[in-house]
Amino acid sequence: MKQPKANRREVQKAQTRTLILESARKLFKTQEYDKVTIRGVATLARIGLGTIYKHFPNKLSMLAAAFSDDLKKLYQDAMATVPENKPFQTQFIHISKQFFIFYTTNDSLSRAYLSHMFFYEREWLDEINDFDDSYAQKMAELIRAAQNRGEINPEKDSHILALVLMSNYFFVLANCFLRDKMTDPDQLAARLETLVEQTLL
Fold first, then answer.
1. How far is CA 175 from its chain centroid?
2. What is the DSSP string of 120-140?
3. Predicted confidence pLDDT, tens digits, the chain (201 residues)
């Protein structure tokens, strides 16, 4: 049975979007952000410039879309491998380390993602903020489970604690990865663990 034309069109559109972002990632991995051009992405993807502009109005929106997609995939992969029956601290470090591994393995791409984040258009900032909110809610859920197990002081507000722990994560990302150029995910995870231990006291 043939797919309806509208469905085929949507599938083709999604496939083209994926191709564009895969090509953009390849260039951002090997070139500085300023040297990557939409024409270069079009050439690598073997599609016309007009096709790219139908999906993304500029290079920054293409970068933001790739980052948003990668964040969601990283989160799904990290959550799928969270060790059960382990203390919350171990779970949080495990999740964070999956992100550290990605950032340090894809250094040039990650620096482009993170250093341009505050310049993203409102559409993409909202999408990333929504992701952060969902992530914080999940961490609060894990914290409440840890409180029920007696690991964490039950008087602490789980949502506020989740936000503080995320702040610890962003501190390590900004200061150790971006500023100090640390490239060892184990080292980054160890720095974060030190902060988390103090936060959970």
1. 17
2. S-HHHHHHHHHHHHHHHHHHH
3. 455 666 888 889 999 999 999 999 999 999 999 999 999 999 999 999 999 999 999 999 999 999 999 999 999 999 999 988 899 999 999 999 999 999 999 999 999 999 999 899 999 999 999 999 999 999 999 999 999 999 999 999 999 999 999 999 999 999 999 999 999 999 999 999 999 999 997
Domain topology for 1-56:
Arc Repressor Mutant, subunit A (1.10.10)
Return the domain boundaries, the chain: 1-56, 59-199
The tokens for 162 are 């989740």
CA 108: distance to chain centroid?
Answer: 15
In 10 A of CB 81, how many CB atoms? 10
